[in-house]
Amino acid sequence: MNVNLQQRAAAIRLLLLDVDGVLTDGRLPYSALEDACELEESKSFHVRDGLGLNLLQKGGVDIGIITARSSLAVSRRMRNLGIQHVHQGQHDKLLALENILQQTGLEAAQVAYMGDDLIDLPVLRRVGLAATVLDADDLIKSHCHFVSGKMGGMGAVREICELLLKAQGKWEGILAHYLR
Question: How many CB atoms neighbour CB 97 within 10 A?
Fold first, then answer.
């Protein structure tokens, strides 16, 4: 990890994530409900990303999401993970970030954000650590401090969680728990 990335990661107290394309692979499968006039959106989340988020929370870093879409599947998954900062239906993600900063009292330099598309760009340009997934567009990658070696929905979130824990000197303690 380069020195600049190490310093940025060490300062992070809140990790914010986009959902579609970051916590999921970005596909939006729909299934018909009983009356066949309504469609229900389903999402697939990677279990290792979930563990990474739990470990990061145990390491003292708060977690949140900012997503333009609204989904019951997202609400359920975030509730299962104990994530409090859930901001769905946010088409102005920068405004959502500013509201979160005001609520938490954090500075932008203490926030990391992982996004994958144009709608995420204003937030990526504002936070202390901008991250994206392997399959993001090159334009998005060019504005990020960290590009995961994994695709969205395939462990990219776990990778950023581990990076933050290592930079903050907490990874070895977490490993020791599992290696005892």
Answer: 23
